[in-house]
Amino acid sequence: MSFAFKLLKKEITLDKCTPLYEEEDYEEDRRALEEMLRPLMEAEMTETGLVIHEDLCFGCGNCVVACPVNVAEDPKGCAIGNGPTSDKVILKVENGKVKAANVESCRRFGEHRILCNACITPCPAKAIEFPGG
Amino acid sequence: MICLGCSCLCDDIECETEGEEIKVGNACLRGFRRIDSINENRLTPRVERKEENIDDTIKSAAKLLEEAKNPIIFGPENSTLETEKEAIELAKKAGAVIDNMSSFGYSGYLIEKIFRKEVDTCTLDETRDNCDVSIYWGCDPMSSHPRMMSKYSYYPRGKNRQRGWEQDRDAIYIDVRRSLTAEICDKFIKVPPGRDFELMKAFKDVLSGKIPKFGDKKSIMKIGNLIKKAEFGVLFTGLGLNYSIDHIDDFIDLVKDTGFRLQPIIEGIGLNKLLFDETGHVNKINYKDKSYGIENNFVEALKGDIDTALIIGSDVASNIPLKLAKRLREINCIYVGPHSNLTSHISKVNIPTAICGIESAGKAYRMDLKEEYLEKIVDSNFLPDQEVLKRIGDAL
Amino acid sequence: MTFDLTIVTYEDRDIFREEDIFSESYIERAAVIELDEEEMKRYGVSEGENILLHNDDGEVVVKVKRSEEEGGGIGYMPRSPWSSILLSEETKGGILGYKHIKVNAKKTNDPVTDLKVLFK
User: Fold this and answer.
1) Which CATH class is domain A44-133?
2) CA-CA distance, B363 to B373, in Å (whole number)?
3) Class for the domain spanning B45-100+268-354+383-395
4) Do A121 and B184 touch (CB under 8 A)?
5) CA-CA distances (angstroms) from residue B64 to B87, B94, B144, B333, B348?
6) Is B292 on the interface with A (CB under 8 A)?
């Protein structure tokens, strides 16, 4: 199980599981796993596990306006539906796609973490996720 | 800067150019693609198959319009008031019919009712500050107007809706398909094609305290009660609200019963407003005799005796039946716009223009008639479309 | 005459006005029909294969895309030159039947309809 978690957090790569690559019996499983993990490996992932699938995002800004940290940091911008006016926001749209910054401020992390879904639920394209949990 | 990618006219866009690279902040992908398309797929001036200089294409267009017995002007879509004014002036000079996309669905009819003050409406800012229940019927704003729900109707906090989408707002989606908007709304009613009128009857029943006879009764009653209790409801409509409603006036009656304000999600409302102020109608005007009628609808006119068409910034050929698109190719068709598309491909004359709000300045209306001034961001050798239309008119 | 399928057209968020409609990338996204598992079985098509759609107004070949949504006899096509080929000239007060196109469908090995050839 811990191998799987490390894989999702990008701490190790799939080829560290040597039997998968060396034994013929596992070829089909290896192909299936590579296919399954491809979006994750290609997606932009921050150190804290937030994944944005750029190919799915179309910059609607729902997450920018819904994120409680964005709202708290930017009452005159994100809170009322506009683009960020503060540097402390976590999510903002650049060139039509959402980008993450200051992810350590996200409520899912840190000492008093909570299972916040505010950026995931409003995304119509399922472009934001926290695959590591 | 202000984005003219759709009729949301987002006013918080940041744009920096570093040589060939453009960095755009806050615009959705639609808006960004429009800004980034400065060097993509630009129209080149031509007459028939021969490339010409811009002056000769304008002269050819003027000649075709002059010789036309029954010309039509169609469009524009995302453009400025100045262009829309010039389009009307040109229609007057050429004795042409003028029409736009609003007659391709019920949006034009609903807008006319709003202009006549026969149906209530509100601004997008009022929606943000007050709306507690929004209904999206036959439209998919997440796909066509991606920032509308995050800027105005659902996600943001507003003066009287301080807790935004989390506690102060509900969103109801009604359509034939589970679209992107359906994915994020609180409630979704999937209506089989052509049966919106049955859902309308069901809502009418719930509003008058009866049990509905359509769909999931419990769900419809819950939604009906949400509608009844709404303090400031807004109903958004789109192209999906067509063909399935035989009597659009029944729909308007339902809207009045609910007390909701109507906001058709529409492009090019500037032309509709200008035409309405002059003629009392928002589209389908024939400037030969200043008459209004269904025969002036672009599709109907094309089936009739139209011999010349001037199409401004709208790929209408992609949205009409094949026979009619081929008819466009047979008649004298002039396309005026920044990028090439199917309509420009089948047109005899192509006149390239600047991209409004990026390569040329002007005023434009948001879908709720809020007027904005769009500045020029980038220098360009292309003529603004209003200038092209003016020059064609002068040459007549 | 009975028809196999009703087509509902929609605005696709991944198709942009500025694009070159003859490019492979545009054709990949615009010349498609979304069918659910049941409809795909009915016509014997898999995702990525081509299907011929026809009615009295025209015929067009597009690529099949799998739809997660239950179709119930409905296929979804992005509003594009390809879906418009199947539109009828008949209107209701000038309004075309974008959400209600009746067609017959058949699996085919023919390539996707080439617009340049169609509008030669």
Assistant:
1) alpha beta
2) 4
3) alpha beta
4) yes
5) 16, 10, 35, 9, 10
6) no
- C84 in contact with chain B, both atoms CB, cutoff 8 A: yes
Q: Structural domain boundaries of chain A?
A: 1-42, 44-133
Contacts of A122 in chain B (CB under 8 A): 150, 155, 165, 184
For the C5-113 domain, the top CATH level (class) is: mainly beta
- Sequence ranges of the domains in chain B: 45-100+268-354+383-395, 107-264
| CB contact (8 A) between residue B318 and residue C16 | no
CB–CB of B30 and A58 under 8 A? yes
Does CATH number 2.60.40.1470 belong to domain B107-264? no
Cα separation, B363 vs A74, in Å, equals 30
Tokens 């994120």: give the residue: A67
Map residue C5 onto helix, strand or coil. strand
Residues of A in Cβ contact (< 8 Å) with B184 = 62, 121-124
The residue behind tokens 């199409």 is: B311
Instruction: Round to whole Å and give the CA distance between B320 and B328.
Output: 10
Tokens of A38: 């491809």
ipTM of the complex: 0.95
pLDDT in tens, chain B (396 residues): 999 999 999 999 999 988 778 899 999 999 999 999 999 999 999 999 899 999 999 999 999 999 999 999 998 988 999 999 999 999 999 999 999 999 988 999 999 999 999 999 999 999 999 999 999 999 999 999 999 999 999 999 999 999 999 999 999 999 999 999 999 999 999 988 888 888 989 999 999 999 999 889 999 999 999 999 999 999 999 988 765 556 788 899 999 999 999 999 999 999 999 999 999 999 999 999 999 999 999 999 999 999 999 999 999 999 999 999 999 999 999 999 999 999 999 999 999 999 999 999 999 999 999 999 999 999 999 999 999 999 999 998
Q: Does C76 touch chain B (CB under 8 A)?
A: yes
Using a CB-CB cut-off of 8 Å, the residues of chain C touching B179 are 10
